[in-house]
Specification:
By secondary structure, the chain is an alpha/beta fold. Helix content is 33%, strand content 24%. It has a six-stranded parallel β-sheet, sandwiched between helices. InterPro entries: Elp3/MiaA/NifB-like_rSAM (IPR006638), Methylthiotransferase (IPR005839), Methylthiotransferase_CS (IPR020612), Methylthiotransferase_N (IPR013848), Methylthiotransferase_N_sf (IPR038135), MiaB-like_bact (IPR006467), rSAM (IPR007197), rSAM_horseshoe (IPR023404).
Length: 441
């Protein structure tokens, strides 16, 4: 058996694809192991949302070659598609695969484990992004308790700061029939929760360049199936989260009340610079609608600080807008300049220290929002899916509305959904809970 290790940077979509690509190597005799277990093959699945992801890639390559100098190191993912010639110059990199080629890894890699072919490395196998990129179904399994199921890829939105359309191509989707087939396959593996993921999953339904289905169609189909009864939506653009969909989700038996809705800025002036497809008034209306239909719903928000042209006044607009919203937490990103994006030409640029200060303010606000949301749940009941990992005699899990719960470790609780009552918040801001009765289904 040859040993294989994956290191995945970035989003849930990357985790789904890494897991699928790893499984494709099993028939070739590869056994997936931990990074430190001297693998023969390291595969690094990269992100390129920020410059930090690029730096992390270089660091992981260096560590891989320390662990096994004779290993083959393959780089794939968004960074690999955007800058393959740059990556292949990194000491230790053997093979760089583009967006479409990464799913052919099983066919591509085999010859390079023959000694004479290994002399041909390092090598780039990456074609330019095409309009007719294939769609590759993917899902994670055994990486985490929850499974990330990819239902959509690519994006047609030209946001000023984003390289994803350049790295992943145009929006395209699986079919509802295929998604249902994967859900059935996943359920047989004992999975309790599926997180629907993609680049822009609200745009689900485009096949071979034509819209044939919709995200709402997919939600209704998943709600009607009997294989799995816990689905979470990873992220939906506010302009695609329409009232009819929200009303349906409020009454759904299978979809949990947790929404992650990208905002990026609370200033309409910055939203225009970003080329976003909504203004903050629409966003505020979506939040009000969610909370009116599902008062206990958890709402997460993506926000970017330091976009070119963001004045102090515009940032404070964002801060006060978020402070007044009934939201539960923030994912804060510091703007990173990416080549071939519109934002590169926007002035003025924001000083690094100013961006760091703005990021710190929003992280503090996020902590405040999360704690305030958790406090509204004290004394209430929830259903928690417990994870395998344990820390200092405790284990954790997430409720349907994304409350992070900590209880004393019990191996029998792993990968089970248990009814709990929320009791108190600990010093770290995690919810302590009592299990009402154990159910091992």
């Amino acid at each position: 058996m040859k040993k294989l290790a994956f290191y995945t940077l970035g989003c849930k979509l990357n985790f789904a694809e890494s897991s699928t690509i790893a499984r494709s190597l099993e028939p070739m005799g590869f056994e997936r192991v931990e990074f430190q277990q001297s693998p023969d093959l390291f595969v690094i699945n990269t992100c390129s949302v920020t410059d930090q992801a690029d730096k992390k890639c270089k660091k992981v390559v260096k560590e891989a070659k320390k662990i096994n100098p004779e290993s083959v190191v393959v780089i794939l993912g968004c960074y690999a598609q955007l800058k393959p010639d740059e990556i292949v110059q990194i000491p230790g990199v053997d093979l760089v695969l583009g967006a479409n080629e990464k799913f052919q890894l099983a066919d591509i890699i085999s010859p390079y484990f023959i000694s004479e072919k290994k002399n041909e490395l390092p090598k780039v196998i990456a074609s330019e992004i095409r309009y007719d990129l294939d769609y590759h179904a993917s899902y994670s399994v055994n990486d985490r308790t929850r499974t990330f199921l990819k239902v959509q890829d690519g994006c047609d939105y030209p946001c000023s700061y984003c390289t994803i359309p350049l790295a992943r191509g145009q929006s395209r989707s699986s079919s509802i029939e295929n998604v249902l087939g994967l859900v059935k396959e996943i359920a047989k593996k004992g999975v309790k929760e599926v997180v629907l993921t993609g680049v822009n999953i609200g745009d689900f339904g485009i096949q071979q360049g034509k819209r044939v289905e919709s995200f709402f169609d997919l939600v209704k189909a998943l709600d009607a199936q009997n294989e799995l009864n816990r689905f979470r939506i990873s992220s939906v653009e506010p302009n695609l989260l329409h009232s009819e969909l929200l009303q349906y989700l409020a009454e759904s038996q299978n979809f949990v009340p947790h929404f992650h809705v990208p905002l990026q800025s609370g200033s309409n002036a910055v939203l225009r610079l970003m080329k976003r497809r909504y203004q903050r008034e629409l966003y505020a209306e979506r939040v009000r609608e969610i909370k009116s239909l599902m008062p206990d719903a958890c709402i997460g928000v993506d926000v970017i600080v330091g976009h070119p042209g963001e004045s102090e006044e515009m940032f404070l607009d964002t801060y006060h807008f978020l402070n007044d919203l009934d939201i539960s937490y923030l994912h804060v990103f510091t703007y990173s300049e990416r080549a071939n994006t519109y934002a590169v030409d926007i002035q003025p640029k924001i000083d690094v220290k100013v961006k760091a200060e703005r990021s710190k303010m929003l992280h503090i606000l996020s902590d405040k929002k999360r704690r305030a949301f958790y406090e509204t749940q004290l004394g209430r009941k929830g259903k928690v899916l417990f994870e395998e990992a344990s820390t200092d005699g405790f284990m954790e899990g997430f409720s349907e509305n994304y409350v992070r719960v900590r209880v004393p470790y019990d191996p029998l609780l792993i990968n089970t959904i248990q009814p709990v009552r929320y009791k108190s918040l600990d010093e770290e801001g995690l919810m302590r809970a009592e299990i009402l009765f154990e159910q091992f289904v």
